[in-house]
């Protein structure tokens, strides 16, 4: 369930999101900067056994899994120029797949825009969605969530020389045009702070970044860690306002009512947190840009 008051972790993250390193480059799955390559690989269980008839048994037997994710979000879900997938969401999916006995090269990645996530799950186009997917009550009417595996907070991205936009409260009085992704939680939340005519929606955030670059909008809004990746790729042209104003718990979307699969994902995440795999996944991805050192949040009850 989504709270309107940011957790302490979101506030702490805001203080560190201004840290920007060299621009992201393509390359291997975990290569996020212009220098070296991280060697992190999610462990793969050998000959795991599951109760017949469960989602886990089906996926483990077929030896592959289809995962819906983002292809345009640096640090969390990005498809490189060479076709490799990289980001924290990608590694979370690999951790879960690994506990099914499925190696990284047997994961089928499906580009899943924000507006399509519930539909892709309901239509069985994917086995799960790991795509900066905020858990909320409206979405939980159509799908089930495992997690959360990370807590983010909504923020604003503006041009580096912008001094007028200092937070959401400054948007209406400046007449700012704000861009977000169609069907996303941030696109609904920002309506509290701007006139409806000033909201610009695209299917992906990379188009919002292009609109900001060309002056068609004055700000882009979504979760701070997503914006951090876009700032990192902007070559110093963008900055974060650094005042998160919501709480965004990221969950793994699965078929509504699949309690056993939810419990399995929780077990996989808990194991990863206990043996250090969760931390290594962060350090190999978003941790290369953010100084935050997150821990696995308290997991919700599967239902």
UniProtKB/TrEMBL annotation:
Full protein name: Amino acid ABC transporter substrate-binding protein (PAAT family)
Source taxonomy: Bacteria, Bacillati, Actinomycetota, Actinomycetes, Actinomycetes incertae sedis
The Solute-binding protein family 3/N-terminal domain, residue ranges = 64-289
Q: Which Pfam families match?
A: SBP_bac_3
List the Gene3D superfamilies: Periplasmic binding protein-like II
Establish whether keyword Chloroplast is in the entry. Answer: no
**Is Transport one of the keywords UniProt gives this record?**
yes
Q: Which family does it belong to?
A: Belongs to the bacterial solute-binding protein 3 family.
Task: Give GO BP annotations, semicolon-separated.
Answer: amino acid transport
Q: Which stretch is the leader sequence?
A: 1-25
Q: What are the UniProt keywords, alphabetically?
A: Signal, Transport
Which SMART domains does this chain map to? PBPb (SM00062)
Tell me a GO cellular component: extracellular region
SUPFAM superfamilies, sorted: Periplasmic binding protein-like II
Q: Which PROSITE patterns match?
A: PROKAR_LIPOPROTEIN (PS51257)
Q: Which organism is it from?
A: Halopolyspora algeriensis
